[in-house]
Recover the amino acids of this structure.
DNA sequence: ATTTTTATTTAGTACAACAAAAATAAAAAG
DNA sequence: CTTTTTATTTTTGTTGTACTAAATAAAAAT
């Protein structure tokens, strides 16, 4: 059974792999805010327990086992977030921190019950998919809003790299999952977008924001 | 901030104090299933941090601070149990283990939210009182069913020393909080009681059971 | 007053998580 | 293809938590 720290390493590798197919010692050291030597040591331990495939000086990848282990932690995290929002009434910008703690609980029955009470949801409150218990995950092929152009109509399906402050801003602007955007203008200078949605017109979203809004096209 | 282990020591001292006004090294060693020397060492650390009043060879007591600290853990435990039963639909015999884990979470807002959703309950699903955040606790003056005699009518208000198997047995016998008992007979030989309740008549409860059923008299 | 019980001290183990500095390997640049 | 740079690993060492066994001391009981 991994400790909390080891679980956090597994998560970090999982996310890095998702971005870059692979993880490096340096990336992990940056991510975990520790010395590279600490990471090397830790990776050896994870390799010993069969959670990562590792040969020295080579990039790191999760093993089958580690993949499942990591996915289960992420499953717990995302189920918890969904539970906190849907059942307990928290705002979507409040739940990440709490879920960071709860995801390390061992009681499987707790998470199974959440799952059932929520009707076996397939995404968390930010639209991130919830892995199955066996580690499988259906990733939807959404693209970022920043990839579209004037005239396109898009529905918000997920927010990635979501920090509390980003989510709070979106809430403030009345943007949530399901919101439908019409792109009115794209500024060539800074790639910011002017969009309409709901009863809001001519709202400017910076590129930094648009990069994080994952949408599906509906026209 | 206490570690999980230290929190468990605080709880253990709290419970022992409740029974005996005070806790000893030996009792704690037995309770925590560790060597006495381990306990001595740990108690010194707790004393250093101001959670227990301790002089060597003398009995141990929680300090004001330790009292509050312990009460808060117990608050979290009991709120969690209540939440698991009332909101999540677990049976009262299923929740102790889960709550043992959840009680160590640091997110205050989670427990505050549980509290609110439950309507600020004053007892857990087994009738044990829930401490306030400041550590205060209103202990009701219930007595054990075993203290009463033939002809008395009693309402079940709490189950103490509740193990999962005891609770499962009570559920099986259709006994729950609020159940009203009529004492029909008390066997002098083994102090077992024959009682009527609901639609059940002539049910025998051993002394071991009756000692753990805390009741109020209603006639 | 001596024995027994209980508690403490001492000395040590094991493990987790970390870092600094030196050594080494791999990759990039010349 | 050698040199330089960068990335990684090794070595050595720290800190903290939780624990034990054996020796000793204090308190309680006979």
């Amino acid at each position: 059974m991994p400790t909390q720290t080891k679980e956090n390493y597994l998560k970090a590798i999982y996310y890095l792999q998702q971005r870059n197919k692979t993880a490096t010692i340096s990336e992990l050291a940056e991510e975990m805010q520790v010395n590279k030597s600490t990471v090397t040591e830790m990776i050896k331990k994870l390799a010993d327990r069969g959670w990562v495939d590792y040969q020295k000086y080579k990039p790191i990848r999760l093993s089958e086992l580690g993949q499942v282990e990591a996915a289960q932690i992420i499953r717990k995290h995302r189920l918890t977030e969904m539970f906190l929002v849907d059942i307990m009434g928290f705002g979507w910008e409040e739940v990440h921190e709490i879920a960071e703690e709860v995801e390390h609980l061992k009681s499987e029955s707790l998470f199974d019950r959440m799952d059932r009470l929520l009707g076996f949801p397939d995404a968390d409150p930010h639209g991130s998919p919830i892995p199955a218990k066996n580690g499988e995950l259906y990733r939807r092929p959404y693209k970022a809003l920043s990839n579209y152009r004037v005239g396109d109509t898009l529905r918000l399906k997920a927010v990635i790299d979501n920090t509390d402050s980003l989510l709070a801003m979106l809430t403030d602007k009345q943007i949530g999952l399901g919101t439908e955007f019409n792109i009115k203008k794209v500024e060539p200078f800074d790639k910011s977008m002017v969009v309409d949605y709901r009863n809001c017109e001519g709202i400017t979203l910076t590129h930094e924001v648009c990069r994080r809004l994952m949408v599906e096209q509906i026209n």
Remarks:
- The helical segments of chain B are 4-20, 25-32, 36-48, 64-86, 95-102, 108-117, 164-172, 207-210.
- Chain B has a mean pLDDT of 96.
- Residues 4-62 of chain B form a domain with the Arc Repressor Mutant, subunit A fold (CATH 1.10.10.10).
